[in-house]
Write a structure and sequence with these properties.
15 helices, TIM Barrel, about 375 residues, binds iron/sulfur cluster, binds S-adenosylmethionine, alpha/beta, about 40% helix, 2 domains
Amino acid sequence: MQKKPPLSIYIHLPWCVHKCPYCDFNSHEKNNNSFELDKENYLAAITKHIQLHESDEREIISIFFGGGTPSLFAPSEINQILLAIKNKYSLHANCEITLEANPGTIDLPYFAGYQGIGINRLSLGIQSFNDKHLKKLGRIHSAEDAFQVATHAKQIFPRVNLDLMFALPAQTMTDLADDIGTALSISPEHLSYYHLTIEPNTLFHKFPPQLPDDDTSAEYQDYIFKKLSAHHYHHYETSAHTKVGGACLHNLNYWEFGDYLGFGAGAHSKITQHNSIKRFSCYKNPMQYIKHTHEKDFYIERKTVTRNELIFEFMMNALRLNDGFKVPLFEARTGLLFTEIALEINQAQERGLISVTDDMIKPTALGQNYLNDLLQIFLRD
Ligand SMILES: C[S@@+](CC[C@H](N)C(=O)[O-])C[C@H]1O[C@@H](n2cnc3c(N)ncnc32)[C@H](O)[C@@H]1O
Ligand code: SF4
């Protein structure tokens, strides 16, 4: 019998003050006239969904309130969801509870409120500390707001993450160095540094801004990695950098192919059951989610992951980790023998995309840079 992996919970809160032109997350501009009522109905739907979901004997190792902009919900509203979770599941003593926040939506007294209900990690969407770039990115906050909010967060929460993006429209090396310098002066436990990508169905896709070319972007990326490493941040995943002990446990559980339950519009679940892996997806539109949840119709899609998909999905997650994974993890999470992928592993090794030492499989620098090519090797029909 396959041992069940650790279990996390993801809660999706889908509203924002304003839709950013680069963002393809399931997030919707809030309607000021109906927002209080929308929130009330949404909270009722999520708590009902949690209440009626199957119990699980496992302790919850992490909870992540993501969005959208969860900081549009008051501490008492977030607490309604937390109480529903605690009524149904046991939390691990060190359960990491993260809330994503936008610096433009923060009422500073909210921070103490969030901390008071048990939020122990705050993730702030900063993007840049440069007003020129924030404006171009359609952000609702200034560089000064971002700095003040991040500094305040550091005084309240045991762990703070800052989201930043690079290769921004018209960004120079000096702009980048200034952004990193400001981020480092705040000394967050964790930094997520994303390469700005132009996603379909965004305003930037329709009206593309002038971006730094590939060589310049590669130079910026190199600078970020070196600078953060010099300041003792360990680069442990494609975009994630952490001080000792600050890694995001919730995301690590995804990358190590753990299980998770997702509640809220468009949220996904992955559950190991009877030696197979099941995936469920909630209705994506918030109003549809509310409507269907009241009819106890929780999922628009349910599927069992096939054996071939399992191999690819495991690799798609685990090979994002710069330290890679151990053979026993592959076998425990997939229920397959490692020998089943011997041919693929040899091929990836011969192409210099992974290194294999003892029972450790690690993407090389080449493999990290050409992750898609590496993953293609594990794609089976
Ligand atoms: C759900 S948002 C985080 C919190 C909050 N909504 C905010 O923006 O302040 C997650 C993060 O993904 C990153 N992101 C979103 N769209 C991106 C894109 N097109 N390219 C790179 N990073 C992106 C941003 O850094 C953003 O903070
Ligand atoms: S980046 Fe954040 S604030 Fe902007 S639209 Fe996306 S989820 Fe909302």
